[in-house]
Amino acid sequence: MPxxxxxGRHELGQNFLTHTPSLDRIDALVRNTRGPIxxxxxxxxxxxxxxxxxxxxxxxxDIDEHRTHRLARALPGVTVRQADALRHPLLDPVIVGNIPxxxxxxxxxxxxxxxxxxxxxxxxxxxxARKRAGxxxxxxxxxxxxxxxxxxxxxxxxRWGFTPAPSVDGGILTVARRDAPLLPLDxxxxxxxxxxxxxxxxxxxxxxxxxxxxGLDPRAARRALSDSGISARSxxxxxxxxxxxxxxxxxxxxx
Length: 255
Known about the structure:
Elements: H1 9-12, E1 16-17, H2 20-31, E2 37-40, H3 46-52, E3 58-62, H4 65-74, E4 79-82, E5 94-98, H5 104-113, E6 119-125, H6 126-132, H7 140-145, E7 149-157, E8 162-163, E9 170-177, H8 188-200, H9 206-214, H10 218-227, H11 241-254
Helix pairs in contact: 2-3, 8-9, 9-10, 10-11
């Protein structure tokens, strides 16, 4: 395969998924969704062939022009395009992809900022998949997105299940847009600022973090936690989406 004008495998983060149980799992997850599919990072098409077999409209993109040309010839029923996942429109209701590991965070941020898609089934680094799914505690990105999206972990992919093998294992992560958001969309900027202030604020205890993030006095901060059903011994990573929303709603009113 000739070298792409955008770089070689290392620069493009090309680690092609070959692990059959993981391909089977992704296929099953996608079949539980509805609507046209956009695959990002199609590569050599191992997953593309599975997606094409669903019979749904499928668009597959990859930044490597040589692989897209070859894939288009092999799968004439699929719309195959040479495109950058950070720029291509995300208009389809289902987004699927083996994400280049070095682009995981910017691609996730872009997905969470778009409004059209409904379900995403993604392969990421194992630790990223665990953190986004809240295993071991919420991250700031997950907490900021919680009122509008749900995250779930669906398995670990051994590093030898990719060709060439990356330095870390992969994970299968799903992201679904909530049918009934916990907050209106116009509340998102203020809510995200509050979560960021809680994760980055000064304080050893949660009530101190609330006071620092909101300007409430310590007594009012403790009362807000109690009224939200949150233990003062909790940390920001321990809060559920419902607790985050309840806390933010209360402190906003009391300010």
